[in-house]
Amino acid sequence: MEDRLMTVKQLAAYLNVNERTVLKLVADGTVPGVKVGSQWRFRKAMIDAWLDDQMLGVLPRYLSAPSMEGSPRRMLGLTTCFQPDHIISELNFGTKNGVIEELSGLAHGLGLVRDKTWFVGALIERENVLPGAFGGGIAFLHTLRRNPEQIARPFMVLGRSREGIEFDALDGKPTHLFFVLGLKYDELHLPWLYKLSQMLADQQAVKALLDAPDTTALYEALIRAERNLAPEPAKVAR
After folding, report:
1. What is the pTM of this model?
2. What confidence tens digit (pLDDT) does each residue in 151-170 have?
3. Which CATH architecture fits 5-56?
4. Where are the domains of the chain?
């Protein structure tokens, strides 16, 4: 199906839900759509990008969520894709394209991306379809399509702007934290993305990231938020 406009009925069939659910989601501002007269219309490319974020867990889920259960080795920690040198504690650029260029340069310099020009273009392409800044000062950036040959290994890099950057956020406010995700495959095979979205739902965790004085403190704040998300079970008294 090419990128075309879909009606409520067509979108309901595409999502395998009823039309009432579609109307509720679009009325809540959850699903990206535009009203033409009295009728809603939806771009397939934008819906696919929205579904991608749903699958990856970087947006609250409104459709069936994939089970996070499985073997312990599948429940990867952030350290499998994220290290202290993956952080720019204060971004130099103050524009959307500048941020993407700077963080792509970091990923390329670390050997995580084989072709920086491709990665910059792929991130901008995704942004042109559906912005990754969902509000709350946070943006998740990733590509529309997975190119395993271009990504050396799955990764995340983080850039911070204390002042904030205009990034077309849904709430109209500046964005401060930019998480760039380097993904190799379409399947949800890296649960750290789902975990990350849960961690950043905690406003105290976000504040700790914004207040961290340097790269080391930023890294430790994120790892601490991960640790606090799933506390060890209490020991049973004997």
Report:
1. 0.77
2. 998 899 999 999 999 998 87
3. Orthogonal Bundle (1.10)
4. 5-56, 75-229
